[in-house]
Write a structure and sequence with these properties.
About 30% of the residues lie in helices and about 20% in strands. By secondary structure, the chain is an alpha/beta fold. The strands form two sheets. It has a seven-stranded parallel beta sheet with strand order 1-10-9-6-2-3-5. Strands 4-8-7 form a three-stranded antiparallel beta sheet, covered by helices on one side. Helix 2 (about 35-50) links the parallel strand 2 (about 30-35) and strand 3. It starts with a strand and ends in a 5-residue tail after the last helix. Bound molecules: 2-amino-2-deoxy-6-O-phosphono-alpha-D-glucopyranose. The site of 2-amino-2-deoxy-6-O-phosphono-alpha-D-glucopyranose (GLP) has 14 residues, from helix 2 and helix 5.
Length: about 240
């Protein structure tokens, strides 16, 4: 595991954006994208680079990690809306190359299988961007999830519902389920870039790196991946011995 440690959130976002741009310069790139407060700054930096004519999104293929279920794509708390608002509408990405799980799918099983099939069709994910939940979740792979799962429906953990209620009017409004790439889907990515910022991620990061590899803390599986870069600020890494 490699580490890029920055002074603060702003610098973390800039470093992550540089990595994003470098990876995107490679031909036929398939990106796995994340949502959440942590990655917003990175997307802002990427938009700045795009506006300075440094980036071309026209051939980029993307797969988002997850989406709430059930949720309408126009709901402003959906991850469809998040991606449109924080990245896609600002750049020249092709809509038909963008993939996000369908939060309104009637046949969830079919939706999940077809999501994995599409990833396979494009040759797998080259670079997967991740945040981390306070409980160590990645995507929406909550504690005690199977490490063998591919894209699947997840019942959200009470901690996640509470954490994510900051984006909704009330905790009752947070959907109780999500469709998420599974741990197996994430582990199949050739390269993983995990972003973490702030003291509230300190314990999750510590357990991810030094803890026992266990579904109790889903991110601990990343210890077994051969190409992980953690980009984090000083607050998030304060417990680490690096
Ligand atoms: C959310 C998302 C994750 C994200 C994590 C951290 O629930 N499903 O993909 O990485 O939780 O979110 P934040 O960056 O807002 O702390």
């Amino acid at each position: 595991m490699r580490f890029i440690i920055t002074k603060n959130y702003g610098d973390m976002s800039k470093e992550a954006a540089k990595v994003f741009a470098d990876e995107m310069a490679k031909p036929n790139c398939v990106f796995g994208l994340a949502t959440g407060a942590t990655v917003k700054g990175m997307y802002q930096e990427i938009i700045k680079m795009y506006k300075n004519h440094q980036l071309d999104f026209s051939k980029l293929i993307t797969f988002n990690l997850d989406e709430y279920y059930p949720i309408h794509p126009n709901n402003e708390n959906s991850y469809h809306f998040f991606m449109k608002e924080h990245l896609f509408r600002h750049v020249n990405i092709c809509n038909h190359l963008v993939h996000i799980p369908n939060g309104l799918a009637n046949d969830i099983e079919k939706e999940c299988v077809s999501y994995d099939d599409k990833i396979a069709h494009f040759g797998g994910i080259d670079v997967q961007f991740l945040g981390i939940g306070r409980n160590g979740h990645i995507g929406f792979n909550e504690p005690n999830i199977s490490f063998e799962a591919r894209t699947h429906i997840v019942k959200l953990d009470s901690k996640t519902i509470e954490d994510n209620s900051r984006f909704f009017n009330s905790v009752e409004d947070v959907p109780k389920y999500a469709i998420s790439m599974g741990i197996k889907t994430i582990m199949d990515a050739k390269k993983i870039i995990l972003l973490a910022s702030g003291a509230e991620k300190r314990d999750a990061l510590y357990e991810m790196i030094y803890g026992k590899i266990s579904p109790r803390l889903p991110a601990s599986i990343l210890q077994l991946h051969k190409d992980v870069t953690v980009i984090a600020d000083q607050d998030a890494v304060a417990r680490l011995d690096i």
